[in-house]
Amino acid sequence: MNPLTQYYRCPERFSRIIAHHDPSDTIKGYFRFGEEICFGKCRGGYPSRSSSAVLHDALAQVKVDRGVLDLPFDLTEVIDGLRQERYMGLAGSNGSDLASPVNRLYYLLRPFLPVAVRKHLQRMRLSDWKKLAFPTWPVDRTVDAILEKLLLLSLRAEALDRIPFIWFWPEGAPSCAIITHDVETTIGRDFCETLMDIDDTYGVKAAFQIVPEQRYEVTSSYLESITRRDFEVGVQDLNHDGRLYMNKEQFRTRAAMINEYGRRWGARGFRAAILYRRQEWFDALDFDYEMSVPNVAHLDPQRGGCCTVMPYFVGKILEIPVTATQDYSLFHILKQHSIQLWEQQIELIMKKNGLISFIIHPDYIISRPEQETYEALLSHLSYLRQEKGLWITTPREVNRWWRQRAQMSLVETGNGWRIEGAGNERALIAYASEQDGHLKFTLEAGREVR
């Protein structure tokens, strides 16, 4: 099954794709597919080592042969290269910087540095964020745009009026939103009860990511105080020391301990501290879903980004990416107490019917100005739920739905289509058609996507 069929859950006969490579072409790099930047090999072009260079456009090389799209690149290689941040290896930033002497020294000294000093050092380290051309700030939708363009080409290839697929979210919701709370300190842990009260005021259930060791005491009564109110508990790192991914042997040792905490707590979701990650190591994690990959990581210590606003599978694990700027970055790096940036990101994500994912730390919203900013965000999300049908849920439910959808299939009947598979009672058939050179989505029974 190719990435186009996986993404849209459409019958394979509507997305027939082949790719040919010159065996002598072993160079991976950046090239374009129309306006979108790709990473991988490309037949008939010379990929660049820099995303900001003048890039070869592979779109002109696409051929159509009896309804089949003949691409000059391997679609799976390109999509995985973006989602799994393989393009960062070309720049020497595939994760090896996590073990650099500077990084090691910082985390050795971090416990002794006042917060004001840490913030100053972080701003210095991230001061070049506006100069980063790729991924695209403030939301990168490259993967989604590439697949959208290919679905449009598939429509044209067979002169179809429309292509059926399984809609992205249950009950026809236009997009999905989740709130996650990373608990970093004792003060943050003790504020969780108040934070749940705030969330409940707006009818929002969130997930709390708990550090198992060293940071603070984690009692069964504390975990129960979260779960008995229908909030979710997840595991955050092991001890939040910034060293989880420094070398593979240490990672696997710690992963075994992290997995044990997950089993003990009944937690099925994991996030690494500081959003450090090496997606090629995720196979050691015994969780259903992982939440450490930013959409665009300009304001994070580990740069990169998955370039999509949708969940995706990395082996057996579902990656639920962080698609909005963290509260810490908003307050202390950008020095903003407005939700204007968040509103902009929400709008861009909803245009692609994607997942809106926030990290809000209880440690950083204790003061009234930060609380008011967070409550303004909750108010805006509540408005979108009421007026647009936005689905606000927890990571656990996103994982359940996305796994169910991945197993569903469209079956042709005498007068149309039906969806088969567990959870199909919540799924809707949608149709993709062309309007003014762009894709238009319509839900079954003629319902427009809100």
Architecture blueprint of SSEs:
Layout: H1 3-8, E1 17-19, E2 29-33, E3 36-40, E4 63-65, E5 68-71, H2 75-83, H3 101-109, H4 115-125, H5 142-157, E6 163-166, E7 176-183, H6 186-190, H7 192-201, E8 207-210, H8 220-227, E9 232-236, H9 248-265, E10 269-271, E11 289-290, E12 312-314, E13 317-319, H10 327-333, H11 340-351, E14 355-359, H12 368-388, E15 391-393, H13 395-407, E16 409-413, E17 416-420, E18 429-435, E19 438-443
Parallel strand pairs: 1-5, 7-8, 7-14, 7-15, 8-9, 9-10, 10-11, 11-13
Antiparallel strand pairs: 2-3, 4-5, 6-18, 12-13, 16-17, 18-19
Spatial extent as radius of gyration: 22 Å
The global form is globular
User: Helices and strands: which structural class?
Assistant: alpha/beta
Cα distance spanning the termini:
30 Å
Taken as a percent bin, the fraction of beta residues is 15-25%
Main beta-sheet annotation: 9 strands, mixed
Q: Briefly, what is this?
A:
Helices cover 32% and strands 18% of the residues.
Structure description:
The chain has 13 helices and 19 strands. It is α/β, with parallel strands linked by helices and 450 residues long.
